[in-house]
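Checklist before submission:
- one chain only
- standard amino acids only
- sequence pasted in full

Submission:
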Amino acid sequence: MFTGDPKILLLALLGGIIPSIVWLLFWLREDRDKPEPKGVLTGVFLVGMLSVICILPIQQFIQLNIASYEWQVVLWATVEEIVKYLAVIVVLRKTALIDEHVDWPIYFITAAVGFAALENAMFLIKPLQLEQATVSLLTGHLRFLGSTLLHTVSSGAFGLSVGLAMHSTPFGKKIHFVIGLLLAVILHSVFNFFIMEDTEGNIFKAFGFLWVSAVVLMLIFEKLRRMK
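Returned file contents:
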């Protein structure tokens, strides 16, 4: 458990937040023609971070009541994707800021990297407490490449699907929402299944799968950005 040392907490937060900010800045460059308000993006990021706290008891409930580990993984992924979506809706529900197709994935990704920031920080606390600097560095580096990108890709895919349906019928929007959620859960679950067996081969497969998905996401994002 956390000892209460503010230095450890600060280092863990920095180790979690900085990689997330790097990824966020990368995606915001893709929306540089008409950027979203920084204050609203900050709000979505912070709500995304806080949503980690809300999800912990739900994940614990799933772990205690679902015997199959495979189903636990799928349900954890489902809950996380829904919570990240709600983080976006909580901030944007009374605004009219969504006026382009690409706005949806931008806000989804912002919530996702906020979620990853606190999640990563929590993973860093234990090795920092044990004064395992090398372990902390490796943990942060792997989560920068893995977990943070995973949340970005899965929520980005969800946001792209919702964005594509921006001017669709109400039924069409519901269909795209379901498709986006399913796609996000599948991407999230597949990555987790790859790393369930902590072998070198599986880790390479997991990261390969993730980077291929990220490239596809970037290509679709670029096409969506050009839609009027």
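Reviewer check: The chain has a mean pLDDT of 84.
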